[in-house]
Amino acid sequence: MSIWSRNDDKLFENALVLYPENIADRFQLIADYVPGKSIDDIMAHYDDLVHDVFEIDSGRIEFPGYTDDDSGRVELEGHSGRVELEGDSGRVSAERKKGTPWTEEEHRLFLIGLEKYGKGDWRSISRNVVVSRTPTQVASHAQKYFIRQQAMKKERKRSSIHDITTAVDTNTVPPQSSLQNQRGTQNFNFAQ
């Protein structure tokens, strides 16, 4: 394993931008761009980078607080928005993107994936079933779904995408309005 200086890292990052994934001999070109590094060094460093980004995106490790040697400011783009780190002051300003609501079809696919892979295997559900969402998005959706399921057992709320299930239930009672909840309601049986 070779030792990487901050300058080596900067050259490596620049080369990643100069030579995108679709270029043949990409790692050879990057190795030529970063003096003293072999293709094996470049490939190992790239694998480490991909692993680190995955760990950060999945929330397993915290976002590192690097600073740029020149200006004391670094901007990094990620799935959750732009984060700007300023020098050694520890100040962090974040601009968070709003999420895209899940469609009924994505939710139905989520339920199929949940049935097939089980609770907690968000990566498999994302890769194989709800391919339009990242594992982090699937996990977040699952958390909201399970909270909704618990709340539905206690009290009816307004309808939501999280009410959709794969099971056919002939005794479902539609959600009650807040006025009905305040006055008390009669029990209706909508079974056919």
Automatic annotation (TrEMBL):
Q: Where is the organism placed in the taxonomic lineage, from the top?
A: Eukaryota, Viridiplantae, Streptophyta, Embryophyta, Tracheophyta
In this chain the SANT domain maps to: 97-150
Instruction: Enumerate the NCBIfam families for this protein.
Output: myb_SHAQKYF
Q: Which Gene3D superfamilies would you find in this protein's record? A: Homeodomain-like
| SMART domains noted in UniProt | SANT
Q: Write out the entry's keywords from A to Z.
A: Developmental protein, DNA-binding, Nucleus, Transcription, Transcription regulation
Q: Give TM regions.
A: none
- Mind telling me which InterPro entries this protein's record contains? Homeodomain-like_sf, Myb_dom, Myb_dom_plants, SANT/Myb, SANT_dom
According to its UniProt record, where is this protein located? Nucleus
This chain belongs to the protein called Transcription factor MYB1R1
